[in-house]
Design goal:
This protein is an alpha+beta fold. It contains ten helices and 17 strands. Strand 10 and strand 11 form a beta hairpin.
Length: 415
Amino acid sequence: MKKRFWKWSASSALIAALLLAGPVPAPHVGAPFAVFTQVASAEDAPAVPKLDVQSESALLMDAATGQILWAKDEHAKRYPASVTKIMTMLLAYEAVAKGEKQLTDIVPISKSAYGVEGSSVWLDPKEKWTLQDMIEFIAIPSANDACVAVAEFVGGSEEGFVARMNAKAKELGMKDTHFTDSNGLHQPEHYTSANDIAIMARELINKYPHVLETTKIKSKMIREGKFKLENTNHVLGNFAGMDGLKTGFTDEAGYCLTGTAVRDGFRLISVQLKAPNDLARVNDTKKILDFGYANFKQEAVVKKGEAAAELAPVEDGVETEIEAVAEQDLNVAVPKNGGALEKKAVFTAVTAPVAKDQVVGQLQVVQNGTVISSVNLLAKQDVEEASWMRLAFRGIGDFFSGIFSGIGNFFSDLF
């Protein structure tokens, strides 16, 4: 009789617990949550030296991460002149990558291309030049006529191409930019900023690095040796590692140059806008890049397969938490004399089943409160979906755990 009573009592308690518990509690599925791990202290870290340039706007960027290492009035809207042609080359290469065009395609030369003003290679509609030839004409002597020919070839018309330019700028997050032509000839509504130029330069360099084989050419003979292409970038050959990227000049824009150099695998991008003369833009570009290599170094912060400090949450799984590992190596630019870096694991709640190598969050590198780069975090194992019975008893456990925790806190507060 007593045995039956205790059995009945235990069953009643289980049923009551299930009813009181209500819906089975689930892991947090709201905003992603973060876990910080300090990897370098900011305390007493020496400041990076100041840099003075004549150009009205300027910027230094780590090409690998997009991290801005130094800037001067980088969001001010400026006329870019022929620095515009970075976007023109980017869209030409993109058309090739999409299979729309080939570098060996012959580019028609229209009357509008033939008659464009400014720097030119004097294209003749009777000539036969490939898309690769046109890119060389744009990159080396900064030919406006080649830009119009490429714009018409890729976009159907220069207007159609400009629409692509503005769409690409929006896609890349270039918020200070509006294009009205393919070559940068002055128009009041054609403008950008040092920040936006660095964004599109980085996109071009990282997606189509072969462009640097063209932009580093100092001179080249064409038309059976009768016409010489001279590169307008006078920093080439005067700075170790310099291999691009594009100059610009109009009376309204002043002297502009977006440069890039690489040393020991560490690539930097410099931007300077509205220098008073060519010597100033050359000196400013060299000064900015020198500053970068003198004060910053590339540091491996995350290794491929490195585990995050905390476990990633899994909803409705046999396991409720699993280890998450970095998808790839991650290098960032840090001050040589010390600086503040943190690793921040940001997990996105996922629901079982989970497959091994599924993305479950990001491991971010944070400096002074700003995320400077990140790498995906991957599930280290498969996770099967839990049965309803397992979830039910897990809910019961969570319910009673909450009750006893509350009681403990109550008596703790009393005494």
